[in-house]
Amino acid sequence: MPIIKRYSNRKLYAVDSRHYINLDEVGEMIRRNEDVRVLDHDTGADLTIQTLVQVILEQEKKLGGLFPRVVLSRLIQLSSSTVSGLRNSVQAFLEPAKHVEDEIVRRLQILVGEGGMTEVEGQNVADLLLANRFHGTSINKSDSCVTDEPVKLEQLEKLALKVSKLESELEEIQKR
User: Fold this and answer.
1) What pLDDT score does 145 carry?
2) Which of 41, 66, 108, 144 qualifies as a cystine partner to 5, CB 3.0-4.6 A?
3) Ordered strands of the 12-14 beta sheet
4) Which residues contact 96 (CB under 8 A, 6 or more apart)?
5) What is the pLDDT of residue 96?
6) Do 73 and 67 touch, CB atoms closer than 8 A?
7) With the C-alpha atoms ordered 98, 104, 105, 110, is the resulting torsion angle positive or negative?
8) What is the bridge-based pairing of β-strands 3-6 and 37-40?
């Protein structure tokens, strides 16, 4: 496991290779599946999590739009939520693709069931959101509603607002 020392001036020093590195290089180490550990040079405190968050923020700056505002807002909301919300967040990070697909299907089923959208609209949205071009694995389309009819961006924006409203309503019901 590579050990990286972080100095008070925020410089990072790779102990094994005996040279200074930057956040991009830490990101590369992580992408190579190296289990990196970052320690404060003075105190020995574990700064791994904070450093990994910095790597993500640097990627966000460079790529722009890496995370939609809604995702970041939701992460902040979940961090102050209940233990089960935190557990769901951890599971979402461990298996993000599966979590997202399951959540898409669940929410579309709710919207169709409550009449917020027609089954055909649900099929169109599922087709767009569960398309294979978004990831390397195939999706069992029998679990979702899929058709070849296109959906306009305006429809997706309206759907996102409906989903957000439903989430709020569900949270209110759960509080009661």
Assistant:
1) 43
2) 41
3) 19-21, 12-14, 3-6, 37-40
4) none
5) 72
6) no
7) positive
8) parallel
Confidence of residue 53 (pLDDT cuts 50, 70, 90): confident
pLDDT higher at 77 or 36: 36
Please name the residue that has the structure tokens 């405190």. Answer: 45
**73/121 Cα distance (integer angstroms):** 27
CB burial of 134-148 (b: ≥16 within 10 Å; e: otherwise) equals eeeeebeeeebbbee
Classify 10 in phi/psi space as left (phi over 0), alpha (psi -120 to 50) or beta. left
Domain spans in the chain, listed from the N-terminal domain onward:
3-63, 69-175
Residue type, 35: D
Instruction: Give the mean model confidence (pLDDT) for residues 142-157.
Output: 49
Residues whose CB falls within 8 Å of the CB of residue 72, separated by 6 or more in sequence, listed in order: none
Q: Residue 145 and residue 42: Cα distance in Å, rounded?
A: 56
* Nearest by Cα to 112 from 127, 129, 125: 125
**Amino acid residing at 89:** S
Contact between 143 and 104 under an 8 Å Cβ cutoff? The reply is no
pLDDT, tens only, 162-172 = 776 776 676 67
CA distances to 2, 39, 49 from 33, rounded to whole Å, are: 11, 19, 16
Helix (H, G, I), strand (E, B) or coil at 144: coil
